[in-house]
Design goal:
By secondary structure, this protein is mainly alpha-helical. Helix content is about 75%, strand content about 5%. The chain has one domain: Orthogonal Bundle (ABC transporter involved in vitamin B12 uptake, BtuC). It starts with a helix and ends with a helix. This is Ribose ABC transporter permease.
Length: about 325
């Protein structure tokens, strides 16, 4: 256990120091940053991004990309809330249908990526527009309010009155993702496919199944994020998840995952997502416009990718 912690710190020392420095700077500018309520709020907001980023880590490791995650969030939120508010579905049944919708879109991405030569960027760009359009069509462009306490508690409730439900889900999903990537053959196959697909194929790895799983899992995690976000907002909104893919990719790249595939760690993605979450929260506390926040996040991604390229050249 001690060795694992030491390895984690050694592999992510740079971004851990960056996170600590960022927290210190923001707390000096606004002492409210370190309040327990605000720190819990950062964790709650970061959890939604991490649902997406954990799956995005797998997808990028196999050499892919998924631009549809934010749109899947929107359509799943709209479908789930529509079933509850307009068709009186039980909350559990509506949530199950919403998760299924997300997984089906992810499976479509995975099937096309595995069976055609169409680049994943183009595939998921197309499904991004399809899913977003479906969200607008289903909702008629309007938020769908849900007054069910049992649904709203999914994203707004607490465990023991202290731990936010979204953070509780994150802990469970984080354990699952860590187990998949570090303790299973599937995890090793993902690294092999991203490192050298041809070599992986000749060694007997079913590349199609690996790609199909990664994208389907991405659809599942996007569905979870969409349902949790809809619950927190007490409504399904066709605009939700806009730009979510940017935050997820930023977290993955900051966490050290190579955009060319074959290398990455779940732990690094967690630190990367915390940096994005702390940065967004700090900019909000300082009253920085959300418009400028997009610029800052874009610069962060550019710098992180450039650092990855330089590191690869040196190695």
């Amino acid at each position: 256990m001690g060795g694992s912690i030491k390895n984690f710190v050694r592999e992510n020392l740079g971004i851990i120091i960056g996170l600590i420095v960022l927290c210190i700077v923001i707390s000096l500018v606004n002492p409210n940053f370190l309040s327990s309520n605000n720190l819990l709020n950062v964790l709650r907001q970061t959890s939604t991004n991490l649902y997406l980023a954990l799956a995005m880590t797998m997808i990028i490791i196999i050499g892919g990309i998924d631009l549809s995650v934010g749109s899947i969030m929107a359509v799943v939120g709209v479908v789930t809330t529509s079933l509850i508010a307009l068709f009186s579905f039980p909350v559990a049944a509506a949530v199950a249908v919403g998760v299924l919708v997300g997984m089906l879109i992810g499976a479509l991405n995975g099937y096309i990526a595995a069976t055609t030569i169409i680049p994943p960027f183009i595939i998921t760009l197309a499904t991004m527009n399809i899913a977003r359009g479906a969200a607008y069509v289903i909702s008629d462009g309007k938020p769908i309010r849900v007054m069910s306490d049992s649904f709203n508690s999914i994203g707004s409730g607490y465990i023991g009155g202290v731990l936010p439900m979204p953070v509780f889900y994150l802990i469970i999903l984080l354990i699952i993702c860590y187990f998949i990537m570090n303790k299973t053959k599937l995890g090793r196959y993902m690294y092999a496919v991203g490192g050298n697909a041809e070599a992986a194929k000749f060694s007997g790895i079913n590349i199609k199944k690996v790609k199909f799983f990664a994208y389907t899992f991405g659809g599942f995690m996007s569905a979870v994020a969409g349902i949790v976000l809809a619950s927190r907002m007490f409504s399904g909104q066709p605009t939700s998840g806009t730009g979510a893919e940017l935050d997820a990719i930023a977290a993955v790249v900051l966490g050290g995952t190579s955009m060319t595939g074959g290398y990455g760690r779940i732990g690094g993605t967690v630190i990367g997502a915390l940096i994005i979450g702390v940065l967004s929260n700090g900019l909000n506390l300082m009253g920085v416009s959300s418009f400028w926040q997009y610029i800052v996040k874009g610069i962060v991604i550019l710098v992180a990718v450039y650092a990855d390229v330089i590191k690869k050249r040196k190695s």
